[in-house]
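sry for the spam today, last one i promise. struct tokens for design, 348 residues
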């Protein structure tokens, strides 16, 4: 169930209504009146939740799910366990998106409420700049400074002795103590999730959170997206430079360093002590193990083992990269020598 500090639950809703809304066909009409409270990934669902199956990689999750319903293509319907209602559709992910929008919606700061909502809880010693907005249910610890025109969304929790710069936006987030967030950073906005459908692309609702542990630093203009369903997590003492993009469901360990313009795709797992050079990039669902290093401008398209340094596009171990670079350089020199009829530098 999405965190009720950030998302309003709109259920329960019958499977019959969800099927109609999503353009699916309920395989067994006997399940029409089954009530559903929430969407969920199949692996964590119970009988009051509905999920979807759209990728053969998750057949095991389908086999063991306890979900009350599942949006699924007809050819895979027999793989769903007994007791899980099959909602047949050629667009299971898009159907899930429609169901999620029916069952959950983000809690917003009411337009007629004061800028500092009366339900917000600010401990003694909180300092607010001009134009700060703080939503209902937000909690801010003592000694925290919040810069001008920063917006703290409903339900957000910020620890003690934090420094939040000007024009920062924080939503759907839990933030520890002594966290520094520089100006114009955006924390907890919806991640990039899109479902294809016959009626056009649909945004997938992003129902997870962002968690910044103690002593994290987030640079100016950096964006950290909330999870699609689980959480995006930044570990203690990790330091993030300016203009970094961290996508939904990324989990970063402790004591990591990310230089400017690094980009991490969705569901990347980063161990402790990992370092990223400027403009480094990582493909989705990869793992960078403890102590790995990704050089400036490198693009990781495979997992990186512990303690190794990789560079290049696509990234590979640095020794291999340097050997390849040396071989290419020597080959070019040989070609120039042959074409020139002498040494490359013209002294031969």
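last one done:
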């Amino acid at each position: 169930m999405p965190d009720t500090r950030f998302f309003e639950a709109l259920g329960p809703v019958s499977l019959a209504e969800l099927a109609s809304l999503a353009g699916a066909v309920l395989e067994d009409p006997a399940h029409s009146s089954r009530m559903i409270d929430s969407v969920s990934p199949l692996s964590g669902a119970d009988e009051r939740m509905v999920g979807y199956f759209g990728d053969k990689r998750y057949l095991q999750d389908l086999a063991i799910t306890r979900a009350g319903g599942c949006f699924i293509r007809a050819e895979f319907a027999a793989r769903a366990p007994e007791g899980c209602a099959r909602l047949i559709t050629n667009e299971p992910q898009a159907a899930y998106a429609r169901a999620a929008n029916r069952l959950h919606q983000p809690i917003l700061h009411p337009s007629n409420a004061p800028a500092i909502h009366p339900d917000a809880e600010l401990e003694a010693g909180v300092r607010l700049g001009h134009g700060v907005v703080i939503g209902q249910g937000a909690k801010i610890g003592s000694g925290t400074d919040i810069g001008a025109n920063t917006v703290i969304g409903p339900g957000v929790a910020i620890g003690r002795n934090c420094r939040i710069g000007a024009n920062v936006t924080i939503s759907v987030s839990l933030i520890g103590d002594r966290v520094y967030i520089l100006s114009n950073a955006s924390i907890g906005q919806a991640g990039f999730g899109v479902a294809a459908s016959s009626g056009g692309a649909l945004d997938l609702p992003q129902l997870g959170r962002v968690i910044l542990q103690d002593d994290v630093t987030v640079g100016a203009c950096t964006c950290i997206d909330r999870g699609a369903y689980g959480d995006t997590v930044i570990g203690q003492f990790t330091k993030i430079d300016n203009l970094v993009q961290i996508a939904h469901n990324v989990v970063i360990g402790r004591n990591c360093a990310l230089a400017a313009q690094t980009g991490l795709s969705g569901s990347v797992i980063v161990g402790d002590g990992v370092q990223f050079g400027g403009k480094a990039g990582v493909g989705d669902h990869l793992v960078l193990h403890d102590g790995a290093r990704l050089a400036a401008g490198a693009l990781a398209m495979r997992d990186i083992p512990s303690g190794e340094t990789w560079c290049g596009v696509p990234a590979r171990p640095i020794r291999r990269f340097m050997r390849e670079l040396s071989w290419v350089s020597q080959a070019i020199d040989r070609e120039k020598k042959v074409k020139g009829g002498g040494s490359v530098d013209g002294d031969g």
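The mean pLDDT is 94. ok im logging off now
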